[in-house]
Structure formats: structure tokens, C-alpha cells
Amino acid sequence: MAPPTPVYRRSDIFRKYGEQLNDPQKYDCELKSLVQHECTFKLSQESNKSPGIICLPFKRLFQKCLKEPKKALQGKENQENDWITIEVTDSNTNRNFLKNTQNSTIINEFLNADKELQRFMESEADGSV
Known about the structure:
Mitochondr_Som1, Piso0_000305 protein
């Protein structure tokens, strides 16, 4: 299991890494991305049937930057660089997926299945099931 990862507000990220984000060339920043999937179970009305799984893609964007600008030592470039990875995902990153009408069916199915799973888990915790 991955270690816990702290979650920062956007203002905290800019306070800490604003210089790198505002001048990406100076810090040799490269934009990186990955796609993760958020999944939920779709419960079946039939007790003998196993639940289905519905997953939605979620794109995350990162800037990989030098902590400090490259420094020349006696005319030679310093080869020991310390890199940082800054998540720059924002509310617009996944907007195209969410706004695409072809995806609305799977999004609604996911949201409904997730609500149903939550109700089931709560009723099981209460001893109702």
C-alpha cells in the first residue's frame, strides 16, 4: 500500500512552488500526466450474481521541475540536480471528459451505483441487511 500523501490547497502549492510554476523554463520543467481510475461496485438485484465494477478515468497533471535553476561550475553544467514533482491538476483538467455527452451515461451510472453502494454499506452497518 502506498504511504499517505498530504493534500495541499492550490494557494499552498503556489506559495511553496510559485517560482517554478511561474518560470518553467528557468527550472527546466516538464509537464507530465497520468490517468487513474475511480471505481465503484454496481450491486445486482439478484443475490446470487456478483457485483459489477464501473470505473471512470481521471487525468492528473504534474510539473517536474528542478528545485533550483541549473548552475554552472567553472563553465561546466552541474550534473547533480534535485527534482520536484508538483501536481497542477485543476478543475479544468477533466472538463472535456465530463462535458462530453457520450460519457454522461457512464457518469450517471457510476454516480447511481456509488450511491446505492453507500446505502447498502450503511444498512449493513446498521444491521438492516
